[in-house]
Structure formats: structure tokens, C-alpha cells
From TrEMBL:
It comes from Karstenula rhodostoma CBS 690.94. This is PLP-dependent transferase. Gene3D superfamilies: Aspartate Aminotransferase, domain 1 (3.90.1150.10), Type I PLP-dependent aspartate aminotransferase-like (Major domain) (3.40.640.10). One of its GO terms (molecular function) is transaminase activity. Transmembrane segments: none annotated. Keywords: Pyridoxal phosphate, Transferase. Pfam families: Aminotran_3. InterPro entries: Aminotrans_3, PyrdxlP-dep_Trfase, PyrdxlP-dep_Trfase_major, PyrdxlP-dep_Trfase_small.
Length: 606
């Protein structure tokens, strides 16, 4: 393959560990800074490494081409993923080098290698004998994983969690993540219920985004301009709500949209001279995001803990959780009546004239593991909100946009919110976008139009044209798949029930559409939760990422008690375009994983 040098330029600092999967079949140009010594080189046969010494390069002038056999015939060729340990025979660091290969590459500098070597659980073993073998040292051993001893791989990337190992991804293919040790991991949870069609590239979205990019470029200043791409998506989004919504605003993360909801409601009350309406009411066992207002609304104890003192005071009512909340022999109607009475009492205790709004997830995601509202519950909430003039917010960031079987989760319940939030899969995981829909009934737009005239909550980047083009195409694709989501969701639920219902550690399997949660218990008669120190859901998720399981399930905690301190569940949120055979495979893989995990599981001494 003829190398060409138009590939992207990447800076490699001394300790950087890079995946080159995005540059398959291309030559990439790599610039090195502050790298003093390199390890031996391994290259795919036929690939070439061209090292150029330029300014700051050191003793070897000019450039030097090295064919892979010279470096050492690669004994580590795998279907994807090759490590390049840069040659140690260069006494001084090259300023740049060009790599030409048809495989995804890893560059490992010596410092990384040393670091990886030092970490027994993640050490790279270069000599993998079989192309499909998983280097055992690379695989996470869930049962032996040291809970608190992992260091970040790269010293420059601040890890999300110093105690949790992440896996090096080198690519994605349809419904699979491709890892650097040559494995394909089936994503049965859409990551964190984000990817709608799997993590792999998608031509329809890529084309839509690229066409818009060719016209509008990347950034459009939404303070000064609008454009047909953004407008078309917003129109389609608002129309998709069947005439109940009047407008939408676009943001980035889900938390951004939640923050905007809190602000627009507060401003709406201010425009109506109701400045005393400042108290939001939310529910136990809910998660609404990580920014300060969003964190205040949510009750996710472990995420709130360090920030508790600076959060808003948010009175809470019990979540609608029939698995744990319903009394023995209680009917759905009686349970709903009880929850309704509690909410009304809370409104009265706070004083309806002080309430800014009430927020809930129609199907609770991360905090309760896909718990759908039972029939009649959301109607009861709507009635009370109407009675006391309390704006009702539905956070559909996780459960909406097709995930629960209808485009908007509320459509199946026949209950319309005043403010609706969407995020996660709004562009199928291909771009970052969230949205806030404003209900017609509330009249927030009119209040602000006639009042101050502007919503005092702008972001620099909102609703970029290329992102919206991707969102519009995603919306079409999701709508096409709605019947499949319902049909495959039913098949998945039935399959999981048949396989796992009798398992003593499976307490409940629930959900809606392709959004299914499995809650784990010490025994399914007493429903006793596991000790949080056992890290059941997280360890099970970690085991899933090892061979032979190779599946990604999304773990959650806190589903067992109102403060969210105990309880373990996993979320399954498979791609919307799964077929029957793949659903059956998911049932089998998830069943095997759960059975394997609990066979090996040894609880902490309590
Ligand atoms: C229901 C719900 N709301 C809000 C958020 C926050 O979204 P993000 O993480 O994109 O900020 C999440 C994230 O999991 C969520 O599940």
C-alpha cells in the first residue's frame, strides 16, 4: 500500500496511549514530544514505519524507512489491533513518524509499557499465539479484580473513576465494540442507553451529517443565525408530539436540558409575578443528571454525596415501584391511590403557591433499572399538577425517543407533560444533542415573549446544523423501527423471564420496549438486597466484558431502598434494529453471564 501523508496529525506525549482505529487503511503522521526511549517495534507484515527526525529529533538526521520484518515479524497479528512498540534502537526520539497499515494500531511508548507492565490486571502481552485468543492478562477477571488498586492508564486523561478499569476500544462494527485484544463485545445496553443502532458507524447518519457539514461547516452561532437544518429538526421534533408541544430548545448533554428546564420554569413563574414559586418536588430513586440543579432533582445518593451541601432542597415523594412498594394483596388502583395521596400531601405541606414544578421519569432508568409507571399513576400525577397549577416535567432522557416502544414515552400512557426532556439517543449516539420541549398548555413561551422577551439561559453551542441533520435522520430511523422495538422488546422480555425467572438471585425483570432492567437480590423470596460493598452489579458488568461473555450490560445501584444506598440492577437497552436471532443470542448471553456470576460470587462477610 502506498503510504500517503495527508492523514491527520496527532501529538503523542510521553505517556499517551492512542488508538488509531479511526485511521484504518490510512497513513497517520505522529509527532512525538518529550519521548526519550522507545521499546521494540512490532508491525503487521507489509506495513511500514517511516521515522523522520526533524527539529528536536536528535542524533539521527534525515529520515529512515523501516520495514516491519526488520523490526520483527509481527507475532501478534490479530483480526484487529496491533501494538507498535516504538524502536529502542533510535538513541533519540524522532520528531515524527508515519505509519502505514491496514490495521488499527496502538502506539505504546516505553513509559506506558512500563506502567502497563506494573499493572498486572492490564498488562499487554505482545505474543498472542492465536488470532482470536484473548490475552488472559488483558482480560478483566471480575472475581479477582482488585477493587481499589487500579491506576489510570494514561497520566493525562483524567479517569472517570480511578478504581474502575476501562477497556481500550479500537473500533466499532454494527452492534459490537472492537477491543485492542481482538475481541468483539456485543453492546446490549446501548452503552448507557444511548446508541440506538449499536456503536458502529452508520452510513445514513454519516451522510446526513456530512451533507450538512458541507453546506454549513461545523459551528453556527445560534445567537445570530438560524438555518434550515436546525429548523427542520426542531419542526419535526415538535410535530412528533402530536400538537401538544409548541416549541423546542436544543442543548448538549441531558444534564444541560434538565438545567434548562429548571431555569425556564423559574423564569416562567418570575414573568408571571410568582417569584415565590421556587420549590421543585421530585421523587426518590431518580436520576436527572450531574449539574447542580439536575443533581438536586435526582436522589442518586452516591452521586450527590460530595455536593450535598450546595444542592437545592427538593422535597421527595415515593417512586412508583410496584416490585418493592406495593403491599401484599394491594391492587394497582389502591397502590396508585396511595402514591397520589402522598404527592397531594407533599404539595399541601410545601404550600402549592411555593411549588415551581414536579419532575419524574415515566420509566425510571439508571436509578431504578427500567421501572415503568403502572397504569393510572401518571394520570393521577397529571390531575394533581393541574389541580395545584404545578408544571409537570417528564425527564425522558433515558426512556424516550423510541427506547420504551413509542417515540415519546408519555404517548403510551396518554399523559402529556408541560416540559419534556430528551437526550442520550436523540442522535442515536452519533452526535451530542439534548432537547427541551415546551408544552402548549403551560404558555411559557407566551409568558416570556410578553415579559422580558428572552430566555436567560444561552449556551455557546446549541443545535448545530450538522448535528441536527443527524438528529433528523435518526428520528426517521427510530420511527421506522418502532414496530420492531415493540416486537423485539416483547421477545426479549419473554426470553429473559423464561430463562431467569426462577434464578434465586433474580428478583425482578421489568421494563418497556427495548429497555429492560434486571434487579438482583440475595434471595427472591425475601427480596433482600446485597451489601453495597459486594459491588454486585458493577462486578457482573465487568465480568460481562471478559471472554467468553463479551457483552456490555449497564450496571446500576440503589434500587432497593428510598435513599438509594442498596440495590443492584443491570439495564439492557439493545439496538433498535435487532432481529429475533440476535434477541435470542442476548437472552442466552445475559443468562449465561448471570448464572456464571452468581456461581462464582462470594459475598463479603457482613
Ligand atoms: C433520566 C436521565 N436524566 C438525565 C440524565 C443526564 O444526562 P447526561 O448524562 O447526558 O447529562 C440521565 C443520564 O443518565 C438520565 O438517565
Amino acid at each position: 500500500m502506498k503510504p500517503h501523508h495527508s492523514g491527520p496529525t496527532l501529538n503523542v506525549l510521553g505517556s499517551t496511549f492512542l488508538s488509531f482505529s479511526a485511521y484504518r487503511t490510512k497513513t497517520v503522521r505522529v509527532k512525538f514530544t518529550k519521548v526519550s526511549v522507545f521499546q521494540r517495534g512490532y508491525l503487521t507484515p507489509g506495513a511500514s514505519l517511516r521515522v523522520t527526525h526533524g527539529a528536536g529529533g536528535g542524533a539521527v538526521p534525515g529520515s529512515k524507512s523501516v520495514k516491519s520484518p526488520t523490526l520483527r515479524a509481527a507475532s501478534i497479528i490479530k483480526p484487529c489491533g496491533t501494538y507498535i512498540f516504538l524502536p529502542s534502537f533510535y538513541p533519540h526520539p524522532p520528531s515524527s513518524c508515519s505509519l502505514s497499515t491496514s490495521c488499527p494500531l496502538f502506539i505504546v511508548t516505553r513509559r506506558d509499557y512500563t506502567m502497563l507492565n506494573a499493572r498486572k490486571t492490564t498488562r499487554i502481552t505482545p505474543h498472542v499465539t492465536s488470532p482470536t485468543a484473548v490475552p488472559p492478562s488483558r482480560a478483566i477477571q471480575a472475581s479477582t479484580l482488585p477493587a481499589r488498586s487500579l491506576a489510570p492508564k494514561s497520566s493525562t486523561q483524567f479517569p472517570r473513576n480511578f478504581h474502575k478499569l476501562t477497556i481500550e476500544q479500537v473500533g466499532a462494527e454494527k452492534h459490537y465494540y472492537l477491543t485492542e485484544d481482538g475481541r468483539k463485545i456485543l453492546d446490549v445496553s446501548g452503552g448507557a442507553a444511548v446508541s440506538c443502532f449499536g456503536p458502529g458507524p452508520n452510513d445514513r447518519i454519516a451522510n446526513a451529517v456530512f451533507e450538512a457539514y458541507k453546506i454549513y461547516g461545523g459551528y453556527s452561532c445560534s445567537y445570530s443565525f438560524t438555518n434550515p437544518s436546525t429548523q427542520d429538526f426542531i419542526d419535526a421534533l415538535v410535530q412528533s408530539a402530536g400538537g401538544y408541544m409548541e416549541a423546542a430548545l436544543l442543548y448538549g448533554s441531558g444534564s444541560d436540558a434538565v438545567e434548562a428546564a429548571a431555569k425556564i420554569i423559574l423564569q416562567y413563574h418570575a414573568e408571571n409575578n410568582q417569584l415565590q414559586r421556587k420549590v421543585f418536588i421530585a421523587r426518590e430513586q431518580s436520576y436527572h443528571g450531574t449539574t447542580l440543579a439536575a443533581l438536586s432533582w435526582g436522589s442518586y445518593w452516591s452521586r450527590r454525596k460530595p455536593f450535598e451541601d450546595v444542592l437545592m432542597t427538593v422535597p421527595r415523594v415515593t417512586a412508583c415501584n410496584p416490585y418493592r412498594g406495593k403491599k401484599a394483596g394491594e391492587t394497582d388502583q389502591a397502590y396508585v391511590a396511595r402514591l397520589r395521596a402522598e404527592l397531594e400531601q407533599t404539595f399541601l405541606d410545601v404550600g402549592p403557591e411555593k411549588i415551581a414544578g414536579f419532575v419524574c421519569e415515566p420509566v425510571v432508568g439508571a436509578a431504578l433499572g427500567c421501572m415503568p409507571a403502572i397504569p393510572g399513576y401518571l394520570q393521577a400525577v397529571r390531575e394533581l399538577c393541574d389541580k395545584y397549577n404545578v408544571p409537570l416535567v417528564f425527564d425522558e432522557i433515558m426512556c424516550g425517543w423510541g427506547r420504551s416502544g413509542t417515540l415519546h414515552a408519555w404517548q403510551d400512557y396518554g399523559v402529556v407533560p408541560d416540559i419534556q426532556l430528551l437526550g442520550k439517543g436523540l442522535v442515536g449516539g452519533y452526535e451530542v444533542l439534548s432537547a427541551m420541549l415546551i408544552g402548549k398548555k403551560l404558555g411559557a413561551m407566551d409568558a416570556i415573549r410578553r415579559g422580558s422577551g428572552f430566555f436567560n439561559h444561552g449556551h455557546t453551542i446549541q443545535g448545530m446544523p450538522k448535528t441536527c441533520a443527524g438528529a433528523l435522520e435518526t428520528m426517521r430511523m427510530v420511527e421506522e423501527q418502532l414496530p420492531n422495538i415493540r416486537e423485539m422488546g416483547k421477545r426479549l422480555m419473554e426470553g429473559l423471564q423464561a430463562r431467569l425467572r426462577a434464578h434465586p438471585n433474580v428478583g425482578d425483570i421489568r421494563g418497556k420496549g427495548l429497555f429492560i432492567g434486571i434487579e438482583f437480590v440475595q434471595d427472591n423470596l425475601s427480596k433482600t438486597a446485597f451489601n453495597p460493598d459486594d459491588r454486585v452489579s458493577v462486578s457482573l458488568h465487568e465480568m460481562g466484558l471478559t471472554s467468553p461473555h463479551d457483552i456490555h450490560v449497564y450496571p446500576g445501584t440503589g434500587s432497593a431502598n428510598p435513599e438509594g444506598r442498596e440495590g443492584d440492577h443491570i439495564i439492557l437497552a439493545p439496538p433498535f434494529d435487532v432481529d429475533g436471532a440476535e434477541v435470542d443470542l442476548i437472552v442466552s448471553l445475559v443468562g449465561n453471564l448471570i448464572e456464571h456470576f452468581f456461581k462464582e460470587f462470594k459475598p463479603n462477610k457482613q
